[in-house]
Specification:
alpha+beta, Lysozyme, 4-stranded antiparallel sheet, two-stranded antiparallel sheet, 10 helices, 6 strands, 56% helix, 9% strand
Length: 194
């Protein structure tokens, strides 16, 4: 089965068909870098966070909240780059190609309420920043778009925890607070100060 984790939906048969037949045996190397180096935050996340003046551990905690997946090769969850959330259902694909095929099929079916990639960028609201399907699923491009959104939330809210809530639900305080609590749990597990 190409989808690692999903719930039933009307799109499930189509998504299963386009995803391929097996999950990749090993995650991409950049997802394991922190596990091997002993750092809580992988270098790529640190780099993008620095570009946007975001505390690295907070940025990584948002990515964990958005696309975290527990892979067999590592003990703790890692953000998964080829994650789509379609109509509230998370789908983890074995490759960028499989995720791109599924995203293309979903968009062709008229569904634009899709969160894409490591930072789960909402296609409907941010498709201009995401660009095309391929760039939307490029891990570093996706991180940079997400960092831009989070940095803008910080400029509006002037507090990093409030900014994380804004990232998920800018116009719904209840959802924003729940999301903020989830990010804080991930952040605490990193044992670093934002």
């Amino acid at each position: 089965m190409g989808l690692v984790k999903t719930r039933r939906s009307a799109l499930a048969p189509l998504l299963l068909a386009v995803a391929g037949s097996t999950l990749a045996a090993a995650p991409p190397e950049h997802l394991l870098e922190s596990a091997r180096s002993g750092q809580a935050v992988p270098p790529g996340y640190r780099q993008v966070a620095a570009e946007h003046s975001i505390p690295p551990s907070l940025f990584y905690a948002v990515a964990l909240t958005e696309s975290g997946y527990r892979m067999p090769a590592v003990e703790s969850p890692r953000p998964w780059p080829w994650t789509l959330n379609i109509r509230g259902e998370g789908h983890y694909y074995p490759s960028q190609r499989a995720a791109a095929t599924a995203l293309s099929a979903t968009l062709s079916a008229g569904e634009t309420a899709v969160d894409v990639g490591l930072m789960q960028i909402h296609w409907h609201y941010h498709h201009a920043a995401l660009g095309n399907i391929r760039s939307a699923l490029d891990p570093y491009h996706n991180l940079r778009v997400g960092a831009g959104i989070l940095a803008e939330c910080y400029r509006q809210r002037t507090d990093w925890w409030s900014a994380t809530g804004c990232y998920h639900a800018p116009n719904n305080a209840t959802l924003a607070q729940r999301y903020q609590a989830r990010v804080q749990r991930h952040w605490r597990s990193l044992q670093q100060d934002p």
